[in-house]
Amino acid sequence: MLALSQSFIPVRSAKRMLVTGLLVVCFLIGLISLAIGGVDISLSQLVDILSYGEANSLQHAVIWEIRLPRLLLTMAVGAGLAASGAAMQAIFRNPLADPGLIGITSGAALGAIAAIVLGNSLLSSFSETYGIYAVPMGAFLGCLVICALVYKLSSQGNQFTIISLLLAGIAINAIVSAFIGILTLISSDAELRDLTFWGMGSLAGNSFKMITPSLVIISVCCIFFFKMAKPLNIYLLGEQQAKHLGVNVTALKKQAFIFTALCIGASVSLTGMIGFVGFIVPHIMRLLMGPDHRYLMPASIFGGAILLSLADILARTLILPSELPIGLITSAIGGPFFLVMLLKTYQSRGF
Amino acid sequence: MLQAKNICVKFGSNTLLNDAELTVECGQLHVVIGPNGAGKSTLLKALCDDVPLNTGSITYQSKCMNDYKPTELAQCRAVLTQNYDCDFPFTVQEIVDMSHFVHSEYVPSEQLLSYSKQALDTLNVTELANKSFTLLSGGEKQRVQFARVLCQLLPALTQKKPCYLLIDEPTASLDLYHQYQVMKLARDIANQGTAVIAVVHDLALAASFADAITMLEKGKVVAMGKPADILNRVQLQKTYQIDAQLSKQAEHLPSLNIAHTAIQ
């Protein structure tokens, strides 16, 4: 017995080290990200500004009002997307699943686009009430409403089956994209430009006040995802098997769905569509350390934060003084990666 | 004691189980047999609440199954189903350790690890412990899953609490040696005080190890009793439409003799 459990200690400790390593990398990338940009700030200046720098200098303002909130938002969104991706892949027991599959992201898109296009007409009271928060609020509400609909459609009695979730998601996706089409059709040129850019994602222009609610929601969701790690592992054996091993399967699926909806809603409401992070990061982490969610979840959270921060550094430095939409960069990395994974899956199954 | 009374299971207009009954005492190995489509797997699924009952009741220790908390049952009942595909590359050790979930609150983790070790040893899969489950052969997978359900029962078995083990065709993809080894193991687990219900296709295997046999045909129980009483020529002709009988030579386990005119 001892020999057996001993041989496992190095593996586990290696996983723990990897998670710690990712946390350290995450921190370093954060520092680099704060230092890089249109206004040059050296690392020693950065430390000064972050620790006590009271000066009303330009650098101080750049760090505290622009780069730090942006960095925190980037990391939270990256972490949230990756963690919900990992949870969805587990719940669908399919490494290719994605929150977009069940209508979560399209709901947010509909809400945001409705707020953009109808903000001056039908929804003028809504946009007056929320001011600059109108689009994020619209996206968040859209996400929740559509998710509630999918949830309602796929739960009958105490059943909540994955196949009905998937089918409801597909149908709702189709309906929502029809509505988005109609809104696009009646939009003015300026609105069209806004909604197009919303669809490509942007991490720019958010103050601390703006990002705090999202940060709180995403953090809470990530904690719950981490708490679900053990039951999610067992769930991967099969629904009935998990039930016989003492997991409350229906509750687990519902929780995963609800936290994914909240997490995605809180993320994309501020940033717009950012594709593929939720898909690539859990995948890479699974390749590195296996499917055990006790390590996969924290690794995905830190990995997502790292990947999106890196992508953001590229987005805002490649074509200075303007910047690339973040969604373009993640899709440009994620698309080819998805294809490679798909081909590898086919090859390993011998097609 | 596990008791099922008057259970009916219907899907639409299809009646899969019609007024079936089953009583299994702790310490017994009870085998369910029957031709294809007789409702064997449905009966097993009904016993572990995987299919809903239309009528009837199922009790564990005289307490209705639905009155148990799910975790309470999982602590003393393990189920080995026919399907256990898993596309995620867990190691064998990780799969077996998943059975710790319901016990982790009241059994220390070193103790649970020693149960895993014991289960892996019993099923001859210790050397596979660090291998990925997805890379195993069908027979190896089946033995690993058996190790997992055994490990789930070990805490309750050690405390001499009443336990239940439900297995659906545990020998389906095993070679001859492992077929008999697994059935012998089911026998041993029963001898330690567990009520074991196994769906088995091989009548010789059933006759070799079972305390009692329930024979199903078209969703109905057509015979129940000791293997020697059930597996006679008349009953086999009636249910399986085959001219066959059990034969037993000294120092050998029973085998099935089939008349050469049986298959036209």
List unreliable stretches of 5+ residues of chain B: none
Rounded to the nearest angstrom, the radius of gyration of chain A is: 21 Å
User: How big is the Rg of chain B?
Assistant: 19 Å
- Which CATH top level class of chain B fits? Alpha Beta
Tell how many strands the DSSP assignment of chain B holds: 12
Query: Would you identify the CATH architecture of chain A?
Result: Orthogonal Bundle
Biggest interface, residues from each chain: A-B, 28 and 36 residues
Percent of residues in β-strands of chain A: under 5%
Query: How is the CATH topology of chain A named?
Result: ABC transporter involved in vitamin B12 uptake, BtuC
Count of domains of chain B: 1
CATH class of chain A reads Mainly Alpha
Q: How large is the share of residues in beta strands of chain B?
A: 25-35%
Walk me through what this model shows.
The complex is a heterodimer of chains A (351) and B (264). By secondary structure, chain A is mainly alpha-helical. Chain A has one domain (14-349): ABC transporter involved in vitamin B12 uptake, BtuC (Orthogonal Bundle), CATH 1.10.3470. Chain A contains 15 helices and 2 strands. Chain A has helices at 2-35, 43-51, 58-91, 104-117, 124-130, 134-154, 162-186, 189-200, 208-227, 229-235, 239-244, 249-271, 277-289, 293-317, 326-349, and strands spanning 155-156, 159-160. Chain A has a two-stranded antiparallel sheet. The two termini of chain A are 41 Å apart. Residues 1-10 of chain A have low confidence and may be disordered. Chain B is an alpha/beta fold and 264 residues long. Chain B has a single domain (2-258), classed as P-loop containing nucleotide triphosphate hydrolases (Rossmann fold, 3-Layer(aba) Sandwich), CATH 3.40.50.300. Chain B is 34% helix and 27% strand. Chain B is built from 9 helices and 12 strands. Chain B has helices spanning 40-47, 70-76, 92-97, 109-122, 138-158, 176-191, 203-209, 227-230, 233-240, and strands at residues 2-11, 14-24, 29-33, 55-60, 63-64, 77-80, 163-168, 194-199, 212-217, 220-225, 244-247, 255-258. In chain B, the strands form 3 sheets. In chain B, strands 6-7-8-3-9-10 form a 6-stranded mixed β-sheet, sandwiched between helices. In chain B, strands 2-1-4-5 form a 4-stranded antiparallel β-sheet, with helices on one face. In chain B, helix 6 links the parallel strand 7 and strand 8. In chain B, helix 4 (109-122) crosses helix 5. The longest helix of chain B has 21 residues, at 138-158. The interface between A and B is medium-sized, with 28 and 36 residues.
